[in-house]
């Protein structure tokens, strides 16, 4: 085995972890050491490295039509060297010529090889429903038994967030949405035991039309598609819904626009009546009533399983999502094929806004189908509680059952063996998903791999578990443990290269439609900012004003600053304050821990005029992250009576939720039968993702933490709102925000400035204060890591295959050299930890 590994590893340089591509000559002399340190027997190997091709741009017909608006950005060149913005007249084929480019500038060469790109159309529908895929989160009680102060073992019960439709900035725009900006793409085989795919995996970018707002006439269903997510079979409505009988108790709702049905298709989910510009689009209670109704029907006829029922209810609520489904780009689809069909271990990365989260949700959806009969085969985890929440998973620590994970591997293995549930998770899991890997510590990664090998009694990396990992190492790094000055990145783990078959770089930036802005952000990401970019960012210091009454969301590095800012803004508002305390239930011993990291706050104070953010997906346009303003407060009955009596015909502003109107509304709610909950809830006017304004009465929502058996471990009832004048950069990671203000003077950590600014959809919605080049810090190790990846890809393109294995072994060597016995864990959730760590 060793000999075979040695044969395969010929030429690898095991000794110099920091060398990128300049040490080919020396590498051969040191390869033996590398081979001994990292015998390939434990890693998926390939006879020849699997190399997939680079590709950019949209499908040919569209790109031809839009040739003047489709740009390929070279991410490793200063913006000034990149293609000009949309307004410029140069056509799309602005790809630098790599010929003669030096090895030290190898990053450039990746994008420069025009021949490595190919255009190919692909169009797939995204999962139809955003709120349905994940409803339960699995937490074992034992996860918390050893570390009472640990706040890491949090599993979010939230439903899987939606794959949001391409959002169209409402702000005045000088640059019209065009095709996504292509940054770079690479697929690199770093290891591979099983024989790699023999044929090249074709690449192409998603069609240009993905960048446009969904057109009503263009229904995704009408497009030929091989992969429709999620499966239509799980999304059918119960039979009983086809003849919707209105019970007396539901008569009010049926009078509401939400309940309007499609005569042509009685089973179709009713659409909001757009003719009636009522101040309510629907109420959450209406949605809940629907679910209750469905549940009762299920009980009566006993024909639907619990999941089917839930899926049906969600289907009803989110039916519009189907019509505006995101089509995965071909590079995204390529990753799905690799992980779902081929079962490969993959790390996919890419700049902010390239659809990593969207892709991960699609993968989870597909794998859930794959493991429908044996759900325990799939484990969904993330480095932080919040990130886990976003994909309906649990923290990596929680999954592993290692508490803080400070002990050495033998101790941790013993600990897990004592914990039947944790042990079972390790034994049963076939596919492990890790999101936001940039915040996973390298030592932890190695420990987990070793634990898996021992518990599963399988010598392969991670005990043979398929890994699907995503994240962008240029974003927030791991928090170093007390003793360490700097955290170790996961890619520096000794087992990183042997655990991953393919490293894939997503290239298409979807969040920012303006290629110039996307290019500026990419310069930031790499820490190589041109003077032009510095000046453009400095010009964004001007204040932003909007005519819809909503302001910008200010991003702060610490939670303390966020709370202070939100509290002072709330205090300065006139009027009464409404206090909402959550209703928590569950075993008091573990409840608080389970609920600690929940996005839903333990308590929230609101006033009329408060700026809030929705933290649950209501439907396809009111989603987690939608900004809104509190217009007033009223009880459910009042709100529904108002709807029933059709007293709203104007906009919210016309209606005005002032005292007079409110009194008037209350006059309609005297029927004691209808008044069950007299408590007043906020009416919030949201700016929906399609740019429209929608007002809903925000009542209490449920968050649950459940065991796989469905047993509820802890639950919280709370408004689905948080104050949103200010948000922490940590909480903002992963968000797409249309109006952002960032004061870079307060930023202290590498990657923070990039994360903060890259939340913005456009320059028009971004205000940047105190922009300094020095504040934009990219970690040298990260630059080096990506440099290697792209160098390797460049080498692949020039058919210098040996360099690939050299790359893989270098990586292994570097990490082995850096291995230490010191134990480090990631502090997963709290900004305070970061502050403590970084001062
Ligand atoms: N295939 C696609 N077609 C159209 N829009 C897409 C596609 N994939 C992602 N998007 C959109 O791009 C935006 C960014 O996506 P997403 O949040 O998944 O990116 P990300 O890479 O995870 O970003 P970050 O690293 O900042 O968290 C979202 O608004 C999403 O809806």
Overall geometry comes to: globular
Q: Could you list the spans in which at least 5 consecutive residues all have pLDDT below 50?
A: 9-164, 166-281, 297-324, 646-672, 799-839
Listed once per kind, the bound small molecules are:
adenosine-5'-triphosphate
Give me the number of helical elements.
28
The termini sit apart by 49 Å
Rounded Rg: 27 Å
In spatial order, strands of the major sheet run 1-4-11-6-10-9-7-8
Overall number of strands: 26
Binding site for ATP: 350-357
Biased composition (Basic and acidic residues): 1-10, 212-224, 304-318
Function: DNA-dependent ATPase and 5'-3' DNA helicase required for the maintenance of both mitochondrial and nuclear genome stability.
Subunit structure: Monomer.
Structure overview:
The protein is an alpha/beta fold and 839 residues long. Among the domains are: 176 residues, 3-Layer(aba) Sandwich (Rossmann fold), CATH 3.40.50; 232 residues, no CATH class. The chain is 32% helix and 13% strand. The protein is built from 28 helices and 26 strands. The strands form seven sheets. Strands 1-4-11-6-10-9-7-8 form an eight-stranded mixed β-sheet, sandwiched between helices. Helix 2 crosses helix 27, helix 4 packs across helix 26 and helix 9 runs parallel beside helix 10. The C terminus is likely disordered. Bound molecules: adenosine-5'-triphosphate (ATP). The site of adenosine-5'-triphosphate has 24 residues, from strand 5 and helix 10. This is ATP-dependent DNA helicase PIF1. Belongs to the helicase family. PIF1 subfamily. It is found in: Nucleus, Nucleolus; Nucleus; Mitochondrion. Monomer. Keywords: ATP-binding, DNA damage, DNA recombination, DNA repair, DNA-binding, Helicase, Hydrolase, Isomerase, Mitochondrion, Nucleotide-binding, Nucleus.
